[in-house]
Specification:
Blueprint: E1 2-8, E2 13-20, E3 23-27, H1 34-42, E4 46-51, H2 63-70, E5 73-76, E6 87-88, E7 94-97, E8 100-106, E9 115-120, E10 126-132, H3 155-170, E11 178-181, E12 199-200, H4 201-207, H5 217-225, H6 235-244, H7 249-256, E13 259-260, H8 262-271, E14 275-278, H9 282-287, E15 294-295, H10 302-310, E16 317-320, H11 326-334, E17 341-345, H12 348-354, E18 364-365, H13 367-377, E19 381-383, E20 394-395, E21 399-400, E22 418-421, H14 426-437, E23 443-446, H15 449-453, E24 460-461
Length: 468
């Protein structure tokens, strides 16, 4: 018998494949389900169950497609009310997968239906626990993502539920069992997750701030809620897709994989409400792109940034994609519910340019040029990193406008020419593209971001008040 973590770094999400004696189960599957089917086929196993730890907010689960293709039963924890056929487990209910025993443990807090799954082998020895968003490595799930927070169900109330769940259901378990969470560092479902994606429960009791034995309920709630930013705007929409259902990924791909020549692409952009989304490497976008297009490159945290910045999962999209990456781009968009792709530019930017259609560029300078120019021109500097990143240092006088908040704080963009940088060069180009689409063309992008700036002779401020 075996359990395998299937980790998808671009959305910091972990699904799990469990197999024993010809039976298999999948926990929190991604929307593209064929890899799970292929694994089971390779093991000569039938997928018996699809276990969901909760209604996910940060991605669209593959439970419906996987159930339809395999006949497996979808399982949720107590209080879950999906709009499709599923087994709603009782607290403590036992499921068998080959020689494995899986026990549902209701752990409300992140959401009301949040449920962990305790795993034990043929001998009855506890092996591990799949914790969903209840317990991460180094953190716990944020309590403000429930679909409908009310006067009765507040984030403080959910945090109090989570305190009970951790102390009464999780912490009494043996120290040597393995914690298998649903997310790692980079996910917006927590605030302080480790880069490690598994650990022993005993080590988490020693190192995870939320599992301190002497922690009072009031201290837990205060520490958990401290520093929580607003969740990305697309989260509630993903929750509803996971509750109500969605189109099959096969259907989405069939609709979206539509090549459009340059003329047809331009006509679609002019005659629809579609956003042109350019997913090429940022170096290519800076050099040449379609005016008004938005850059969010496949080589970064692509899908979460699309969700956070475009926000509406029903927004029609037209794609500019590197050759051969069309299916990947559409699949990764579908992971966060963006299914309204109208087509892609056949032949890419080369085809667009060959027609003589207009193109645009972003002014960009090396870190060394930025350091030298700033000494004499004293132009404003906008730092698009998250506030928590500024502890590593910042450019004196820089204004911090995190990419996450560019739409809300666009009025703070300087009216004169200004330099724009992030940590490594990816987010600043995203921000520059959004600003250009809004009519701001006065930014100068700093290549390689703060990582490059730190290698120059420019003075870096550390250990001081951070820019507002």
């Amino acid at each position: 018998m075996k359990i395998e973590q299937i980790y998808t770094g671009c959305i910091a999400q972990a699904a799990y494949y469990l197999e024993s004696n010809g039976e298999a189960a999948i926990f929190d599957p991604l929307r593209e389900v064929q890899p799970y089917i292929d694994k089971a086929k390779k093991d000569n196993a039938a997928i018996k169950y699809i276990f969901e730890t909760h209604f996910h907010a940060d991605f669209v689960s593959g439970h419906l497609d996987l159930a339809k293709k395999t006949g497996a039963k979808i399982v949720y924890g107590p209080t879950a009310k999906p709009d499709f056929e599923a087994h709603i487990a009782t607290d403590g209910e036992i499921f068998k997968v080959g020689a494995y025993t899986i026990k549902a443990i209701h752990t409300p807090g992140h959401t009301l239906e949040s449920t962990c799954y305790l795993l034990s082998g043929e001998s009855g020895k506890l092996h591990g626990i799949i914790t969903g968003d209840t317990l991460f490595i180094g953190d716990v799930g944020r309590p403000d993502l429930a679909q409908s927070l009310t006067e009765e169900l507040t984030q403080e109330v959910l945090a109090s539920h989570l305190y009970n769940s951790l102390r009464n259901k999780i912490m009494p378990l043996p120290d040597d069992i393995t914690v298998y969470p649903s997310h790692g560092a980079g996910s917006a479902c927590g605030k302080n997750m480790s880069k490690e994606t598994t650990d022993t429960l005993g080590n988490q009791k020693k190192t995870n701030y939320a599992l301190r034995a002497d922690m009072t309920r009031e201290e837990f709630i205060a520490e958990l809620l401290d520093g929580l930013g607003a969740p990305p705007a697309y989260f509630p929409q993903n929750v509803m897709l996971n509750i109500k259902g969605y189109e099959s990924l096969d259907t989405v791909l069939n609709k979206a994989l539509k090549p459009l020549d340059a003329a047809a692409f331009k006509e679609a952009a002019q005659n629809t409400a579609a956003i042109i989304l350019d997913v090429r490497p940022q170096e290519e976008f800076v050099t040449s792109h379609i005016p008004g297009s938005i850059f969010i490159g496949l080589n970064g945290n692509f899908a979460p940034w699309v969700g956070a910045l475009i926000c509406d999962v029903n927004q029609p999209l037209l794609l500019v994609v590197p050759g051969g990456k069309e299916t990947e781009a559409i699949t990764r968009l579908s992971r966060v519910g963006f299914d309204a792709v109208l087509g892609y530019l056949e032949g890419g930017m080369a085809a667009w340019q060959s027609t003589g259609f207009e193109t645009d560029t972003i002014r960009s300078v090396s870190p060394e040029t930025f350091a030298e120019e700033l000494k004499t021109n004293n132009l404003p500097v906008v730092d698009s990193r998250k506030p928590g990143e500024l502890g590593n240092g910042f450019v004196e006088g820089a204004v911090n406008i995190p990419l996450d908040f560019v739409n809300e704080r666009i009025h703070e963009i300087p009216g004169q020419d200004f330099y724009l940088h992030c940590a490594g060069g990816y987010r600043s180009v995203i921000m520059a593209s959004i600003l250009k689409a809004r009519g701001y063309h006065n930014m100068i992008n700093v290549e390689k971001g703060f990582a490059g700036i730190k290698q120059t002779n420019l003075k870096i401020i550390t250990g001081a008040a951070q820019p507002a």
